[in-house]
Amino acid sequence: MAMAQSRPNIVYIMTDDHTAQMMSCYGQSPIQTPNLDRLAREGVRFTNSFVANSLSGPSRACMLTGKLSHKNGFTNNEHGIFDGSQQTMPKLMQQAGYQTAIVGKWHLVSTPTGFDHWDILEGQGEYYNPTFLHQDGTQSREQGYCTDIITDKAIQWMEGRDRQKPFILLVHHKACHRDWLPDLKDIHEFENQTFPLPQNFWDTWQGRQAAQDQEMSISSAHDMDIIYDNKIYLPGDTSRLSQLYLDYVNRLSPADRQTYFQFHDSLSRAFKAHPLTGRQLTEYKFQRYMRDYAKVTKSLDENVGRLMQYLEDNGLLDNTLVVYTSDQGFYMGEHGWFDKRFMYEESLNTPLLMRLPQGYARRGLIDEMVQNIDYAPTFLEMAGAPIPKDIQGQSMVPLLKESGKMKELKKGNKSSNVSIPPHWRTAIYYHYYEYPAEHMVRRHYGIRTQRYKLIHFYPHTTAAQDTTGRRPIDQWELYDLQTDPSEMHNRYGDPAYRKVQKQLHKRLRQLQRHYDDPIEQELRH
Ligand code: SGN
Ligand code: CA
């Protein structure tokens, strides 16, 4: 019993596609996220938090297993089915005496394993009156807005839990995933705000072939659809995605539908009265995109506040690790894009905040490079459970125990016996697989160090076998993040970077060997 009380609870909140550029605690954000800011203020904020494969299912599989995609088997959303019979963090937490639960987005096709309780969205899930799949095999359409419902379910489960045991609860939101449908109470928010264009919004992707070939551009009518994505729709309109758009909105009750269309019809009429073209149209789409995303984020922030309030009111805050992260970052117009997938900064990064339980003294910023394969070993160590040898991530516990004051001490006094991890990683490995697929981002792998990034976009088949009708791409890219943080200048082959390039190739090979990724050998054959 003493053990049960001393071990912390874990509330892991993971959103979908919420990016650091849209969180005020990360600076530069055009919107305020006061509840997330509070988490950052009272806890720690990671400045170098990365995913291993910037896509929903793969990212979730990395988190659940502590292993990279080629080891956990879930490399992409479109052809994968998560093998739930494998070792996972929730199963190991159960063995360690924790109660385990997940509510919200699951997105791994197979049924969750290792959870005492689960209640999940079907596939991507819906914003309005979403359908949930329950543990007893039934499903039901729930009434309300998905971010509120997922929070309600999280609170309900905590209310009914076994209070003799510590718990780990995964709260997986759908927000802020496409197509960014707001809670109706927020439908008029941000309408007077004009969002600044990122400085590389009009990027023409010179020297970057894969970037030229993507289908995630705000400017493209095919990639960002004016009806489906921007909700410029009047009855009688038909477009590629209008039916899908209506399917989602028509989940609202007739009264709510009226509220929704009252607002959107007037927008649509105004747009159609003065049709835009060219850059004006692209900028208009950008503003609509930003406003919708901001509305969805507002409700997310409020619901995080609600969950925190519950923990506080129930005396749980002091002995609970609260994690806030996303399944990946997202482009908010950088390079002219929405979506993710690329190994460029905005989608390789994922926000990470933690409010730490008693006994974990670190506060403020943590600059060490962490990755989503690190959650599993971190939670296991906190639970006092052994970390199996085949887990590829590193426990963040040593980073969380150290206090800022101790760090200062150590700087000035090398002999101090403060526990800063001496061998923390200085580079991360990335591998993205989903091509050919929606948004047409080529397969690639790469390494990111503190200053540089080396990426290899590789053809998924030989040129002769490529059935997509597109040119096969086999291109290396190198970025100097210090002089070119927006990754506009591919330095690969530049004589000024010859030495750096050679070194990065070597370190990349080392990482591939270390993580046992067979891709390089495969490409040679
Ligand atoms: C859906 C979206 C895509 C998105 C993928 C993957 N299209 O297919 O824009 O890239 O999900 O996102 S949508 O029209 O269905 O919204 S992920 O976060 O789940 O990996
Ligand atoms: Ca996602």
Question: What's this entry about, in short?
Answer:
It contains 16 helices and 16 strands. The protein is α/β, with parallel strands linked by helices and 525 residues long.
Structure overview:
It is a single chain. The chain has 525 residues and is of the alpha/beta class. The chain has three domains: 272 residues, Alkaline Phosphatase, subunit A (3-Layer(aba) Sandwich), CATH 3.40.720; 96 residues, no CATH class; 98 residues, Arylsulfatase, C-terminal domain. The protein has 16 helices and 16 strands. Helix 5 packs parallel to helix 12 and helix 6 packs parallel to helix 10. The protein is globular, with a radius of gyration of 23 Å. About 1% of the residues have low confidence. It binds 2-deoxy-6-O-sulfo-2-(sulfoamino)-alpha-D-glucopyranose and calcium ion. Calcium ion binds next to loops.
- Give the ligands present: 2-deoxy-6-O-sulfo-2-(sulfoamino)-alpha-D-glucopyranose, calcium ion
What is the C-level CATH assignment of the largest domain? Alpha Beta
Q: Unreliable segments (pLDDT under 50, ≥5 consecutive)?
A: 413-418
In quaternary terms, these chains amount to: single chain
Number of domains: 3
Terminal-residue CA separation: 57 Å
CATH fold name of the largest domain: Alkaline Phosphatase, subunit A
Shape: globular
Mean pLDDT over all positions: 94
Estimated helix fraction: 25-40%
User: Which strand order spans the largest sheet, edge to edge or round the barrel?
Assistant: 7-6-5-4-8-1-9-10-2-11
CATH superfamily annotation of the largest domain: Alkaline Phosphatase, subunit A
Classify the secondary structure makeup into a structural class: alpha/beta
Major β-sheet profile = 10 strands, mixed
